[in-house]
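User:
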Amino acid sequence: MRATDNQGSFLNRISIRRNQVVSMDGNHEQELEDLELFQKHVADRFSELLSSTSDDDSLLSIAWLRKLLDVFLCCEAEFKAVLLMARDPSQISKPPLDRLVPEFLDRVVKALDVCNAVSQGVESVCHYQKLAEIAVSALEQRPIGDGQVRRAKKALNSLMLTLEDKEGSTHKTAERTWSFGRRGASSNKDRSTAGNFRSLSWTMSKGWSAAKQIQAMSANLVAPRGGESSGLALPVYIMSTIMVFVMWALVAAIPCQERTGLPTHFPVPRQLGWAQSMIVLQDRIAEEWKKKKEKNKLAGLLEETQRLERLGQSLIEFSDSFQFPGDADRLEEVAAQVGELAETCKKMEEGLVPLQQQIREVFHRVVRSRTEVLDVLDQGGKMSAPIM
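Assistant: Predicted structure:
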């Protein structure tokens, strides 16, 4: 994959520079070049992601979400290299990074909770798939009789009722163990608990809200201005924006607890070259969300889920009016719909587990990166402390 090749070259370049002795002016020029290259890679990856929506993978399909998470992981690795590699630790302990980096780490904490909620949402989608498979199994029988139709109708009614559970209420009754403390993004306690993460199995507290979490992540998201726009404040802003966008898209696509009030936009200046494709994707996702909200159908924008909803409703209508042996033309139409439903179930069977694994990978990657940044902050603090 070209993006991966670019990433490897970029990371190797920064790693080599770590061991080179260069003048301060030369080092500054190299850093500016690295920042430009990082922005170019972000722009290229999101441009490819946008173009893929007109090819084989529909927007917010399982396959597209997997590509989105791949983009996030590639960008995160390069961001960490720009911020930490070949870097004097005291640099990220000085203004404006002494403020921006803790804010970024706080977004990371919130992103971990979103990963937990989305992972549970994927389990709900797996349940949708199983119900749809029961209906497919029944309606594929030949000839179709009253018994098969009743069995399919029961499964489809259960599916539709489950899809109407818009806010993931099946998860609201359980309490959760928090991933990190709610406050104190750089505390020693946070760092000591980082090694305790082994799974995303805990559930969310009753008062937890995916919409509020996304709102909080985007609250202080302000593009750097003036001299800050050419320094390390820029990659921190870029990675924060990518993180908010990815978590927002996941919440919009997959059933999560309490999505009422989910923002349809977060501020990204339209003049930023690296953000153009991301802005287009944000606009398209927001438009789809508004359409679903108007219809009061917010089980999620996942393309496969929407297809289950559409096909399921049509097949329920068929079952309501079915009389054996059935109209030949209608049976032919139903057979085509059952075939489409079976194909959708197959895509879900093949893609949901890898998607959940990628969400876990994102979770554990940002946990490790957060710990590394905290360690560098500690080093920088010690270097800048006055000698007594």
